[in-house]
Amino acid sequence: MLSALRTLWLTFLHLFHRRETIRYPEQKPYLAPRYRGRIILSRDPDGEERCVSCYLCAVACPVDCISLQKTAEDGRWYPEFFRINFSRCIFCGYCEEACPTYAIQLTPDFEMSEYERRNLVYEKEDLLISGTGKYPGYSFYRVSGLAIPGKDKGEAEGEEPPVDVKGLLP
Amino acid sequence: MSPIVSGLLNVVGILIVLVALAAGLTWIERRLLGFWQDRYGPNRAGPFGLLQAVADMIKILFKQDWVPPFADRPVFIIAPAVAMVTVLLAFAVVPVSPSIGIAANLNIGLLFFLAMSSLSVYSIVLAGWASNSKYSLLGGMRAAAQMLSYEVFMGLSVIGVVIIAGSFSLGDIVDAQHRLWFIIPQFLGFVVFVIAGIAETRRLPFDLPEGENELGAGFHTEYSGMKFGMFFVAEYIGIVLISAIITTLFLGGWRGPALPPLLWFLIKTGFFIGFFILLRAALPRPRYDQLMACGWKVMLPLALLNILLTGAVVLADRSPV
Ligand code: SF4
Ligand code: SF4
To answer: Domain of B71?
Structure first.
């Protein structure tokens, strides 16, 4: 009985406490930099698309909302189209985890409501940003052994020249 | 003004004020609950969110009026009406101020109130039964058992007041408090009556017939639209009613210094309405058997003790020693 009265009193005192509510549209909440919101495709420091269309994100996605098609040009791989259906996406971030090139990234932005469902399907043009996103300085082609125009095998950062397996020298 | 016209004015006025108050209370309750939980509550529609009540009313009025095919149709429809009618009728005997009040001097006013509040249980039991669903039936059964145990000492707790005032008429009871409010000589009765009143209105912490987290919504699980709305309005008018009766029986009704009687009545009633909402914000729901055990083993003896003491004191006072 006494504890009940004490509870009543303590609850009453909450009338004079600070409100925890963030009045959202007028007052923006703080979102952590790693908040999982709208997905973007980033570019490497040279301004080229980072995505190498390896399909890993599409495989990792639990709701199958990523679809893309590979095309190659001068030894580099690009997505011919890259489509994310945000009406299905659950913002789990698995695609970001799976991506080997830091291309796909989630951002702290969730204000993407639409009146029509099909407007939630974002194409590559809508997803691509001009910067590097959360990982500045990383470029897949600079560190990988793949030969592209202007960079032959063995010329990547930290890479040894290829060994001639048929040579007899030690 | 002829008595008929003033009587009609009284009736219509009280009716309108009550229903408007019930709608307003939905807003007040949510705002207060919000404050007590460090939130704001509804504050978007209109100034301070006041229009929220209007928005809710529009929504609930325009909802499809749907009766589940498995329900017992006539009873299903009558039940919410019973809930409304009984609480509104019970208000007839409340003396709001010396001039406002429909039948404040009815010589069995208190009995009439008790009868009406007991009748309102029928609406819940019938609703639970007619819905033909397990949750509803459980809710209805709980309501019946809860009423059985609480009705008894609710009636007994006011006997002390009746003994002192020497009348069942609420008008006379208010008059008898012109020197001392009954809350002081009848404190035990007051406590017991307040607890019984909470159980009577089926408010938290005694809302076992609804029990949202165990029974869905209890007896009104199957109700929607305005039928649900009527249960809702009946519940809020019930709160106002119980607060008004507590005020009348124990706090001297409209009596008070300086301010006009109507204002005093509103202040006292409003205080208890706020208290009811605070109870909801603060206390958890007891288990079902705890509720019954508390009713029969604690409250009933307390009420009987109260009658015994009051009777003894009054007798000793009157007998020419
Ligand atoms: S965040 Fe999850 S659901 Fe959304 S695209 Fe990436 S993997 Fe799919
Ligand atoms: S976004 Fe990343 S994981 Fe997805 S296809 Fe492109 S490189 Fe592969």
So the answer is: 67-318
Mean per-residue pLDDT, A127-143: 88
CA distance A30 to chain B (A): 18
Question: What one-character DSSP code corresponds to residue A18?
Answer: P
Could you tell me if residue B32 is inside a domain?
no
> Does B111 fall in a domain?
yes
Residue listed under structure tokens 């009051």: B310
Alpha carbon separation from B5 to B88, B102, B171 (Å, rounded): 20, 12, 21
Q: Percent of chain A beyond pLDDT 70?
A: 99
Is B43 a member of any domain?
Answer: no
Q: Per residue in B250-261, pLDDT tens? A: 887 777 777 788
Tokens describing residue B243: 């607060």
CB atoms within 10 A of CB A1: 6
Number of domains in chain A: 1
Contact B57, B23 (CB under 8 A): yes
Query: Which residues constitute the domain of residue A98?
Result: 35-142
Instruction: Count the residues in chain B.
Output: 321
The pLDDT, as a whole number, for residue B75 is 86
Residue B46 included in any domain: no
Which of A8, A18, A21 is nearest residue B278 as measured by Cβ atoms? Answer: A8
In chain B, count of helices (H) and strands (E)? 13, 0
What pLDDT is attached to residue B320?
Answer: 62
Q: CA nearest B161: which of B147, B150, B176?
A: B176
**Domain-embedded: residue A27:** no
A26: β partners: none
Q: How far is the CA of A73 from the centre of ligand 2 (A)?
A: 17
State the DSSP H helix or E strand holding residue A78, giving kind and residue range, or none if neither: strand A76-85
Locate all alpha helices (DSSP H) within B223-260, ordered by sequence.
Answer: 225-250
Is residue B1 very low, low, confident or very high in pLDDT (cuts 50, 70, 90)? low
Model pLDDT for residues B2-40, shown as the tens digit of each residue:
778 877 888 888 888 888 888 888 888 888 888 888 888
Q: For residues A143 and A50, give the distance between their C-alpha atoms in angstroms, rounded to a whole number.
A: 13
**Residues of chain A in Cβ contact (below 8 Å) with chain B:** 4, 7-8, 10-12, 14-15, 17-21, 23
**A148 SS3 class:** strand
**A79 domain residue, yes or no:** yes
Q: What is the ipTM, given to two decimal places?
A: 0.72
Give B2 or B60, the one with higher predicted confidence.
Answer: B60
Provide the shortest C-alpha distance from residue A143 to chain B (in Å). Answer: 52
As beta bridge partners, residue A70 has: A79
Name the residue among B39, B40, B281 with its Cβ closest to that of A11.
Answer: B281
